[in-house]
Specification:
The complex is a heterodimer of chains A (about 425) and B (about 280). Chain A is mostly helical and about 425 residues long. Chain A has 20 helices and two strands. In chain A, helix 10 packs antiparallel against helix 11, helix 14 packs antiparallel against helix 17 and helix 17 runs antiparallel to helix 20. The chains are: A mainly alpha (about 425), B mainly alpha (about 280).
Amino acid sequence: MSSETKQILTTDGIPLEISLKKAERKNKIKAFLLVAPLLLFLIITYIFPIGEMFTRSIDDKMITNMLPKTFKSMETWDGKELPSEEVFASFLSDFKILVEKKEHGKLAQRLNKEKNGFNTITKKLFRQVKRNKIDETQSIKEQIMKVHKRWRNVEYWQAIKRTAPPYTSAKYLKAMDMYLNEDNKITQVSEDRRIHRILWLRTVEVAFFVTVFCFLMGYPIAHLLATLPMKYSNLLMICVLLPFWTSLLVRTASWMILLQQQGVVNDFFVMIGLVSDDNRPEMMYNKVGTYVAMTQILLPFMVLPLYSVMKTISPSLMRAGKSLGGTPFVAFWKVYFPLTIPGIGAGCLLVFILAIGYYITPALVGGASGTLISNQIAYHMKTTLDWSFASAMGLMLLGGVLVIYWLYNKLVGVDNIKLG
Amino acid sequence: MALPKYTETRYRIWHYFYIAICTFVFIFLIAPLFVIFPLSFNAEEFLVFSEGMKNLDPDAFSLRWYKDMVYGTKNPWGLAAKNSFIIAIFATLGSVILGTVAALGLSSRHMPFKGIIMATLISPMIVPLIISGVAIFFFMAKAGLAATHTGIVLAHIILGTPFVVITVTATLSGFDHSVTRAAASLGSNPVNTFMKVTLPLILPGVISGGLFAFVTSFDEVVVVLFLAGLENTTIPIQMWTGLREQLSPTILAVATCLIVLSTLILISAELLRRRSERLRGINR
């Protein structure tokens, strides 16, 4: 290139490169402006609230704000023996403010969660304060310690100190049936109270087996649909699409009718002599019901991605495999099956993710042994109103889903998700 | 699926076994829907096939439960149906407009940060519903929109847009952009080009996305359970309550109506898909 090469100019006299860049930028902004309304809407109404779930789940500012002076004076306390007069004094002055604001009940409740027995002794202290029994000219430490013997117990003061940090991981630990004990060590709750771990395991187990069942049932029919001539396959496709478009609750209702003790499935079993009439098996309100109903409900989500992948595989590939000496089984396993892996991945991912967050069907046909972690989240949202605990469990579930999604993206790629 | 004459016996057996499995799975998929039909015409209160029904005795069948659904005392279904339709229609409109516009931007090759933005836009589809429910509830409670129609419509727009975004971007991927350039060169402004040229061509995708959004909203129960008050009860909520308390034949009458509705939606979705394929075939 010679140095004489002139810059190419547009008709306005601006160098072409700059002009192009400008146009490019304009296009970028234009495209972004089209996406902006939806993006903004989702960020405000959806992404942001999910973030709020996180702050809610670790938030523990309540006591931090209730006992500011106490925690300030506790900073120098080593936590081994009873705290000094100063700590007692500041605790009393914090407590008096709370009594004025009528918030001492909340304090007692929260502290009682940290260590059993706070309810009684806070009430006792409240009565003393209310009657102005505590003389501030004398040793406050001595007087508080006289209110109840537990105020003389250093463990209770340690419990107060543990509530000082404004953030806590307690909700997450609770969801794993663990807690922080007196020495700030993670401890497991006693064996008979480990309910959440059972629920997590059961959720994963149900989601896993439902995925396996869907795969085992979905693969053959997707293959049949993809290889049959159009006119037959279109008709059979309705069998997949009609349940897909039908309300979830309608399908659950029909399974409730089918699986009840006097229901059609049991009638059929009696008719073919599998079970005797007076010994009909219980198929609903247990895991069997959950598995059967969830498999049928999620099966279309397995069949549709499999079908769309299988449709693109040319039948001549199988013929080629066979002509090269493979038996039909070998040809299938070595040629056809590997080509369907993207479809298998997409189907399994969809079914697993949908199954792991399932709520409605387990709640209706699952009975006590069929409830999953989602039911627990809903229970805490609606009944106990422990929203921070519900948020913590929700985020743990979300974390699991995102890990699966990420793994899937690594292995297969997300672009394979297709709808119908 | 006739087998060639030279097929060995073991493959023949395998083939029939395969057909048997497929038949079983198809019955498993579709049969539950057909149990509801006859039982909804039951003259009795029990949800089992009575002796009369098995013998096809006309007295064993009646429209009793359909009458109860429409005229029943303290009937919740009228209000629920009205709410469901209002909410679903507005949610569909919102999702279609927001989703289509966003899909137009997303399929432009100038779009910056395409991957992460796409992931954000379709996240409501991937995040388990119960979590979406909790998050949306927190927002609506703060905004004072809990237990209002507006709140539920907004929630359903969130859940419905991913379907519109996906179907419309898929339609646009086969879209020939030279037609819009042609329109522009003939002096049409962008809005006019969109209305007169682009929209008619991508309409099947837009409508089928809209159908997805409609069904999502019409069938949605998890989020609504968090958001709805007594005034905004919907069909899914009524069914949920009914199924939890006592399975009455009236629910089956409602379910039958819903199956008819979903059949209609299925037919229109299928017709649209074919039309879209035809249109794209011409484009190529």
